[in-house]
Write a structure and sequence with these properties.
It is a single chain. Helix 1 packs across helix 2 and helix 3 crosses helix 4. This protein has one domain. It starts with a helix and ends in a 9-residue tail after the last helix. It contains seven helices and no strands. The protein is an all-alpha fold. The radius of gyration is 28 Å and the shape is elongated. The mean pLDDT is about 85.
Length: about 120
């Protein structure tokens, strides 16, 4: 029985490295998700192996994105915006010093004519 459990744990780890989520890895292995979670809660080594497997898959994805971004400038910008939003996310700050003047400009652009000035 222990050999079967050890083999199942190994297959779950393998599937996690391939990108499956834990629930899917358990199902494909033939282990219920709750059983898989019990394995993790009672076996610290298995829990660490699962975390390392997910990290390895994550690393593969990052490498893939980075390589693709070298060929696709638009993708590179998207990655930069997600990874470094404080620098690469487009933020436009508009400061209006004279609201009536700005309204006049917008009105003139839309209607192509001068707007009557507000009488005070």
């Amino acid at each position: 029985m222990t050999d079967k459990i050890t083999a199942n744990k190994g297959r779950i780890v393998k599937y996690l490295e391939q990108g499956l989520v834990f629930k899917e890895a358990c199902i494909i292995t033939g282990v219920g998700e709750s059983t898989g979670h019990r394995y993790k809660s009672t076996d610290e080594s298995f829990k660490s192996q699962c975390e390392a497997a997910v990290a390895k898959y994550y690393e593969k994805l990052i490498k893939c994105v980075n390589q693709s971004a070298l060929k696709d400038g638009k993708l590179a910008l998207e990655v930069l915006k997600i990874r470094f939003p404080e620098v690469w996310d487009i933020k436009r700050k508009v400061v209006i010093y004279n609201p009536q003047e700005e309204f006049q400009k917008i009105h003139d652009m839309i209607y192509g004519q001068k707007c009557p000035r507000e009488v005070h």
